[in-house]
Amino acid sequence: QVQLVESGGGLVQPGGSLRLSCSASGFTFNTYAMMWVRQAPGKDIAWVSDISPGSKNTYYADSVKGRFTISRDDAKNTVYLQMNNMKPEDTAVYYCARGNEAIYYTGTYHRGQGTQVTVAS
After folding, report:
1. Any alpha helices (H) in 59-108, and if so which ranges?
2. Can you tell me whether residue 28 is helix, strand or coil?
3. Residues 53-70: what's their mean pLDDT?
4. Distance in angstroms (rounded) separating the CA atoms of residues 7 and 79
5. Which of 44, 60, 73, 92 is the most exposed place for a label (fewest CB within 10 A)?
6. 16: exposed, middle or buried (C-beta count within 10 Å: 0-12, 13-18, 19+)?
7. Which residues contact 50 (CB under 8 A, 6 or more apart)?
8. DSSP calls for 46-72
9. What is the distance between the alpha carbons of residues 3 and 80, in angstroms, rounded to a whole number?
10. Strands 10-12 and 115-119: what pairing?
């Protein structure tokens, strides 16, 4: 079965950086797009970024463009999210998920258990 396990969350000060990791298993990782979504307190889940198979294309929400970088290591079945110049509004539970933005909008996709990211001084 599909399993996605996130790690790397924590508390960071505004302007700081974190790198999230997601280890995937149970499917042929290198044939799927992968994405990160997040849920801020009291808000719906929002798409953040996705990366195509083979890292050919990457896409970002306007709110994180220029600050976040998604990448993948197909040899390790792992997808990453490097978050720089973080802002308090980035505070959320971050989920790794299988698929891309189009899949996100269907509302039906596999995702992990999430990792908490808090940006505060």
Report:
1. 101-106
2. coil
3. 97
4. 11
5. 44
6. middle
7. 33, 34, 35, 36, 58, 59, 70, 99, 100, 101, 104
8. EEEEEE-GGG--EEE-TTTTTTEEEEE
9. 16
10. parallel
- 20 vs 42, 73, 82, 106, CA distance in Å? 22, 13, 6, 24
Alpha carbon distance 23, 67 (integer Å): 22
24-35 pLDDT, tens digit each: 999 999 999 999
- The pLDDT > 90 percentage for the chain reads 99
pLDDT in tens, 1-22: 999 999 999 999 999 999 999 9
What does the block give as tokens for 54?
């083979």
Residues pairing with 83 in the sheet: 18, 68
Sheet holding 78-83, edge to edge: 3-7, 18-25, 78-83, 68-73
User: Which residues, 6 or more positions from 36, have their beta carbon under 8 angstroms from its beta carbon?
Assistant: 20, 22, 48, 49, 50, 70, 79, 81, 94, 95, 96, 97
Match 């719906």 to its residue by tokens.
44
The structure tokens listed for 86 are 């973080």
